[in-house]
Amino acid sequence: MSSIQPANSGRSGALTGGGHQPANLGDILERVLDKGLVIAGDIQVNLLDIELLTIKLRLVIASLETAREVGINWWENDPWLTGDGDKLRLENEKLRARVAELEGEQAPRQRIEGGGDE
What's the predicted TM-score (pTM) here? Predict the structure, then answer.
């Protein structure tokens, strides 16, 4: 039977970067998710020193635990992600009904105070 040896078993330390094993994609991804990665950039479109458009780009790549540690947790309250869309819809309907009720109470007062010339 033949034995399987690691791919870098015959290499010297100088070829592998001073004795360190080369990182594979899984190790890199694990490190990025553990520590987090932020990419930020701004794009500006100017015409004759007049700013027409500014786009601010912010990309954060991190695990959920790392994001929570730095205070990023928007997904926990997002109704699209949590399934609370019905709750938000019902609250919105109640608020719209209350606003309509209040506006209905205000209309007669405005006619009386305005003199009814409308």
Answer: 0.39
Task: List pLDDT tens digits, range 89-117.
Answer: 888 899 999 999 998 877 655 555 555 55
Instruction: Determine the Cα–Cα distance for residues 37 and 59; give it in Å rounded to an integer.
Output: 8
Q: Measure the CA–CA gap between 108 and 26, rounded to whole angstroms.
A: 69
Burial state string for 92-116 with b = 16 or more CB within 10 A and e = fewer than 16: eeeeeeeeeeeeeeeeeeeeeeeee
Note whether 45 and 53 are within 8 A (CB). yes
Contact residues for 40 (Cβ-Cβ < 8 A; gap 6+): 56, 57, 58, 59
**Half-sphere CA count of 28, side-chain side, radius 13 A:** 5
Question: Backbone phi, then psi, for 47, in 5-degree steps?
Answer: -135, 115
